[in-house]
Amino acid sequence: MIGKRVLALDVGNKRIGVAYSDPLGISANPLPYIQNDEKVFENIKKLVNEYNIGKIVVGLPLTLKGEEGEQARITREFVEKLKEYIPDIDIEFIDERFTTSLAEQHLRETTKKSKRKKKLDSVAAVYILKTYLDQQQFKNG
Measuring CA to CA, how many Å separate 70 from each of 35, 62, 74, 76, 116? Predict the structure, then answer.
């Protein structure tokens, strides 16, 4: 996968957390969140082009039992619309059950309280992307 990066999205009702990998698929880097508004698909497409994205991974919010609830349904509908807007890119789901908790813990340890909310969504996207990249390295030996 050298050359193409992976983009991770943490889809929320108001904001989309965003992170991208390096071309070797080793590191995950946060980007500022984007608003989940009428320009969201256009803004994601810009990121795909700007960062030479070859794949998008989207966090799928499962319940603690591993089942899909209302937010998972909303996320799947979002991805279906994204596929229509960017049909030529592979989009994959990844279990995101604990990413927000991990992101909150990380931010409590590293960031002033006043700046945490602004960073939370993209730090969660970093955790989604790290999980995906680790799985790929494990698969590839």
Answer: 20, 9, 6, 10, 26
Roughly how many angstroms between the first and final C-alpha of the chain, as a whole number?
14
User: What topology is assigned to 5-139 in CATH?
Assistant: Nucleotidyltransferase; domain 5 (3.30.420)
Taking residues 84-94, what's their average pLDDT?
95
**pLDDT tens-digit readout, 11-22:** 999 999 999 999
By C-alpha distance, which of 71, 72, 66, 45 is closest to 56? 45
Of the candidates 43, 27, 26, the residue with the CA atom closest to the CA atom of residue 35: 43
For residues 135 and 141, give the distance between their C-alpha atoms in angstroms, rounded to a whole number: 10
Q: Could you tell me which residues are beta bridge partners of residue 30?
A: 19
The tokens for 53 are 């994205």
pTM of model > 0.90: no
